[in-house]
Specification:
There is one protein chain. This protein has about 230 residues and is α/β, with parallel strands linked by helices. Helix content is about 35%, strand content about 30%. It has six helices and ten strands. It has a five-stranded mixed barrel with strand order 5-9-8-6-10. It starts with a strand and ends with a helix. It binds adenine. Adenine binds next to strand 5, strand 9, strand 10 and helix 6.
Amino acid sequence: MKKIGIIGAMELEVETLKAQMQMKQIVKKASMEFHEGTLNRQEVVIVRSGVGKVNAAMCVQILADLFHVTHIINTGVAGSLDASIDIGDIVVSTDALHHDMDATIFGYQPGEVPQLGRLEFPADPALMDLAKTSCQEANPDIHVFTGRVVSGDQFISNAAVKEKLISLFSASCTEMEGASIAHAATLNGIPFVIIRAISDKADHSAEVDYPVFEQKATQDCAKLVAHMMKKI
Ligand code: ADE
């Protein structure tokens, strides 16, 4: 039996999904509320992790240990790192990595967690395919891209920092949880995918664009995730 953990960092990113689900119970752990029930008849646990990589990793570990989820989906917004990916478009992760991990002084690659034996955390191909086809079905007017997600405990709103992330990581978008979710899911052997709608361009315009586009972007993402539950 599949049981899908659905994580959003902020309330806005999970409220639509919670409103649509059939709730069985709410379990509180580590200041997070895990909403257990079904969404489009699929067993799910929907949770707001809180912002940033520590919250996100803790959330995955609880989903693994207490709820025994079989798959993890991260939904939310992100800043674009690719000129062809615009505000309102959706990115489905091919893989994720920590852009703020730097042990290069010891010969590791930028983003590489020392002694882990890998640089990036690949997303599950079946979940990626399902996310792409679900996006085309649920949001036919929205462009969907696949690509790398890079995460750090930083809101990126500076052109020079953005350019550095692009040149180091060839990523499609940046946010603040995906790599931790990918990392923790991988260590627990749980297939995952990150699905992010673009709310800003991760440069000087982000401060203005983010609050304007956040709501529509999160709703588009939630619609896609709800549709995925019909077919997973
Ligand atoms: N989430 C949405 N936009 C972001 C940005 N520019 N940087 C980090 N996280 C984000």
